[in-house]
Amino acid sequence: MSNACIVRGEIPAQEFALYEALDSLPDVEFEVERIVQSGDKAAMPLMWIRNATVEAVEEAFADDPSVDELELLSAFDEEQLYRMQWISEVEVVLQMLTNSRATITDAYGTDGRWYLRVLYPNRESLSKTVQFADDNGLTFDVRAIRQLEGEPAGRFGLTEAQFEALETAVEAGYYQVPRETDQSELADQLNISHQALSERLRRATGALIEDALLVGAVEARRED
Question: Which label site among 55, 205, 209, 214 has the fewest CB atoms less than 10 Å from its CB?
Answer without folding.
Answer: 55
